[in-house]
Structure formats: structure tokens, C-alpha cells
Amino acid sequence: MLRRLILPAAVLLALSTACAATPDAATPAASGVPTVKLGFSAWPGWFPWQVADKKGLFAKNGVKVELKYFDSYTDSLNALATGNIDANSQTLNDTLASVAGGAKETVVLVNDNSTGNDQIIAKEGVKSLADLKGRTVAAEQGTVDHYLLLLALRKAGLSEADVEFQPLPTDAAAAAFVAGRVDAVGVFAPFTTTALKRAGSTTIASSKDFPGAIPDHLVVTADLLGRDPKAVQALVKTWFDTITWIGANRAEAVQIMAERAGVSVADYETYEKGTTIFTLEENRTAFAGELPARAKQISEFLVSSKLVDAAPSLEGLLEPKFVQAVQP
């Protein structure tokens, strides 16, 4: 369950093999209707797609969807960048990195903001970010948790040069921390649950400390946007229908999402405050001002931190018409 990778351009444009899971329920649709391949991976703000698939909500909106779950978030990003899927849930950071690498992608929906489910977790005795100086810190290189680490270090007057950075896949980073091989780790839910099993460990920084820094989105290829805007509209409408269904059927929905996440219902419930799902009105407000400003800010940070070589073009990055067209 690797998630939310800010990829270097060379990796992003490389071909990769998509790891698709078989959906829990087939999605019926009229014959002759093109299938939209929609990717997602491990993150609480994206598990509602599993509910949409299981409860037949895509079909109710007239769109035939092949829902593809990726164990590796990296694979989902590469699949979208190379056109092997039509749409994917991914962060704004990753989308900007993809565009910087030459991909043609557009944000059409805000799924959520991370408000605590991305965390820097440290061993006993490391009580603050300043205490990380000279310590070994693991995170997946280029992920938004690497990005969060850089933001947190900067806030503390430090840089990556002040720590011994260990680049590890997110699941391996959490395991290394629990085994005592590193002093701190940057991970996202559900891997936060794993990391916090280390006795005496504590969260010393999280996305809650950096409001709006890690927004998550539905992103589509320029090809899908050009050839089938009705399908894009149906995906966006299905998202809001799904959030409504979850609100009315919470127990069943949480069970579906926890099963997809591979955690207990009790553990899944702890993620609620750390991921803030955006309402339709919040989507419209974000597209009107917050998202363009955030895209520029993140782009500048990615360049200054040398996570990308050059700032991506923001032209065509954001398309608000689909959330604007949804009827409440």
C-alpha cells in the first residue's frame, strides 16, 4: 500500500506494470459504452471509490468503470502518465510532478485534504523536530511524506542535510522504524498505525500542522477529457453520490473501506479526523481561489527542494466545470 509519490520526471515517464485488483462487484452498463479505467490506492480519502464500485453507484450515473486498485501508488501514477488508465486519485504534489515530467493531466475534483493522517513519528526521547538533528529518518523518497518532512524541517530551521535520510518504501519504512533500525519515520495512514506500535513512539509533526499543504484529487488524462467529458462528469457526480451514501450508511461503508485498507474497523475509525473530505461547495470554493494559489506554492517548493528540475506549466491543470455542473 504505497501512496502519494512525487516522482522524478525520468521515472514518471517510464513504462510500468499496473497491479489491478478484481472489483468486488461487476459494474453493469450498456453495451457499446466505453469503459473508464479509474485507479486508486491506499489512502482514507480514496477508499470511497471502493464503496461506489461495490454499491453500483457508477452504473447509476451511466458510466462503465473498471476500478483498479494499486498496491503500489507509484504504479498508479505511472499508469496515468502513460495512458494505461484514464483517471486516478493522487495528490496535487504528484500531479504537478507528473506534469513537470511531460504528462498531460487535469484535476477535476478535490477528494480531500490531509489534516493529520500524514505524520512524522519519532522514537522515545525524540520530542521535537529540533531533536531530529543528526538522527536517522526514513521515508519514501519523493513521497508527500518526504515533502512533509522537508516542510517540517524547514519550520524548525533545519534541512535534510541535518538528518541522515533513509529512502525506503513506505511499508518498509514503517517496519524499519518498529524494528528500531531508524529513529523517525514519515508515513501516511494506514502505515501510521503500524509505526505507532513501537513502544514510546510519538507523532512530532503531521499534515495538521500545515493546513492545505497536501490536497488529494481525482485527476484525468487529457485524452479522456477531450474524448468523453460526459464520463468525467459522471465520475464527479458519482463521487458526491457516494459521499452522500456513506453518510446515510456509515457502518456498512466503514466496513467496506476498512476491508479494502486491510485494517480493523476500529483502526479505520481513527483516521476520520486526519482526512477532511471536501463537500461540493468546498470544491467550488477551492477551484475558485485556493487551488491555483496552492499549485503555484507547491510548484515553487518542489523546484527549490530539487524534487523536480523545473516548474510545470499550470495552464490546463485545473478544470472546475465538472464540480460546477453537479446539482446538489
TrEMBL record:
Superkingdom in the source lineage: Bacteria
Annotated localization: Periplasm
Keyword Acetylation: no
Keyword Signal: yes
Signal sequence coordinates: 1-20
Pfam families: NMT1_2
Family per similarity comment: Belongs to the bacterial solute-binding protein SsuA/TauA family.
NCBIfam families: SsuA_fam
Entries under PANTHER family matching the protein: ALIPHATIC SULFONATES-BINDING PROTEIN-RELATED, TAURINE-BINDING PERIPLASMIC PROTEIN
Identification of the protein by name: ABC transporter substrate-binding protein
